[in-house]
Amino acid sequence: MSHAAAAANDRTASPAAGPSTRKPPRRTAERILDHTLELFNRYGEPNVSTTLISAELSISPGNLYYHYPAKEALVNALVERYERALQEALTAAGPADDAEGAWLLVPRLFRLCWDYRFLFRDLNDLLTRNRQLETRCQVALTQQTAAVRQRVVRLCAVDGTALNDEEADALATSIVVLLNYWLSFEYVRDPRRALEPENAEAAMRRGARQVQALIWPYLSAELRQRMRPTLSEDALKRGNVAVRG
Amino acid sequence: MSHAAAAANDRTASPAAGPSTRKPPRRTAERILDHTLELFNRYGEPNVSTTLISAELSISPGNLYYHYPAKEALVNALVERYERALQEALTAAGPADDAEGAWLLVPRLFRLCWDYRFLFRDLNDLLTRNRQLETRCQVALTQQTAAVRQRVVRLCAVDGTALNDEEADALATSIVVLLNYWLSFEYVRDPRRALEPENAEAAMRRGARQVQALIWPYLSAELRQRMRPTLSEDALKRGNVAVRG
C-alpha cells in the first residue's frame, strides 16, 4: 500500500467498521504507540514484529507503515514519550531544596523504569541497532544523575553529614545504576514472577528501599528511623513515598 | 552429517589439512567454546548463528553439531565455564576473615563480568529463551552476594563501624548489582568506546571505585585514605587490588 493510500485508509473508516473506529491520524498514531509499548514490555522489543503490531491493532500493515515506516520509528517515538515522562517526573518531584520531598523522586523514577521496561530490558541491544538512542540515553542518564545528586546533597546537608563532591558524585551514580537496573536484577533473581504485573509494586518497593539504604550511613539516626516504615504499597501506587512515618 | 560421521571427521584430519589440525574431540569442543565466547562477546549472542560459528572456525556445521547440537548447548557450556571461573574467583580471593584481602574479590568479579560480558549484556533475553539458566543464575547471584557480604561485614568489623544485619544485606545486594550491571551502565554512557577492549580496564577500575565508595561511609578515615590511590591499572590487570597504598 502506498503512503497516500494508507493515509486515506486511516482517515476514512472502511464501510464495515462503525463510526467509533473513525479516528483522526494523530489519535491512531497514539493508539499504535500504546499497544506497541504494551507488546514491547510483554514480549521484549526484539520479539515483536510490525506484523504482530498491526495484527494486534487490527489495522493494515500499510496503515501502520504510514504512521511509523519502520520498527525503529516506533522505538524512537516511545523513547520520546519516555523523555517527556522523565521531565515530568523530575518536575513533579519538586525543587531540589525541598529536602524531604527529595524522596518523591525515587519511586517516580522506578515507576518510569517499569512503564518503559522494554527499554531497560534490552538496552544494550537497542543501542547497538539504533544509534539515535545513544545521545538520548546519555542525556536521560545525565539528567537523572544531576537531579538525584542535588537531592541527596540537600538531604544530607539538612539532616545528616554533609557530602563532599566525591561522595555526592559516587552516591548519585550508584543510585542511578540501582534505579535503572534494579528491575533487571529482580528479573534475574526470579524470572517467572518478579516482573509479573501483580508483583511489580513489591519489586519497586524493594528497589526504593535499596536506594534508601545507600543513603542510610549519611543520615541522622532520627531521619533514618522515620524513613523506615514508610514505603507503603499505597505510596508507591501514588508514585510517591512519604518520609514522615 | 550424522553424529558418527561428524565424530569421525573430527578425529581424522582431512587429507588437505596438515597434522597440526588433528585435534582430539575434547580439544575441538574447547576450541569451539573459545571462539564462540569471543563471537558472543563481540556481536551479542542473539546476533551469532551456529553457521557463523562454524564458518569462523572453518569446521563443518555437522562437526559443530556433533559437539553442540544447538546454540543453547553452546550457551550452557559457556555458563558452566563461567560458574567454574566464579568458584575460582571466590576461592582465590581468600578466606572471608582476611579483611584486607577482601578487596581482591571486587576486581576478580569485574574481570569475570568482562570475560563473559555476552551473558550480562542480554541476560534478560537469554533467561526468557533458556529456562536452564534460571536456577544457575540464581545460584551464581546467591554465591556472589554471600561472598561479598562476608567480606564487607569483616572489613567493617575490623576497621570501621560494625554493620548490623540489615545494613550488611543491603550493602551486599547493592554491591552485587553494581558488579553485574556496571559494564552495561558504562556501555549506555558511551556505547562506542566504553567496552572496546582498550578501554575495558578503565571501565572496570571505575566500577571497582564505585563499589569502594559504597563502603566508604562505614570505614575509618584512615583505611579510606589508604584505599584511595590503589586501584592501579596494574592491579586490575593482575586481577587484584592492593589495599595498602
UniProtKB/TrEMBL annotation, chains A, B:
Keyword DNA-binding among record annotations: yes
Organism: Sphaerotilus microaerophilus
Ranges of residues in domain HTH tetR-type: 26-86
Annotated stretches, region: Disordered: 1-28
Pfam families membership: TetR, TetR_N
Name of the protein described by the UniProt record: TetR family transcriptional regulator
Coiled-coil parts of chain: none
DNA-binding region: 49-68
Keyword terms: DNA-binding
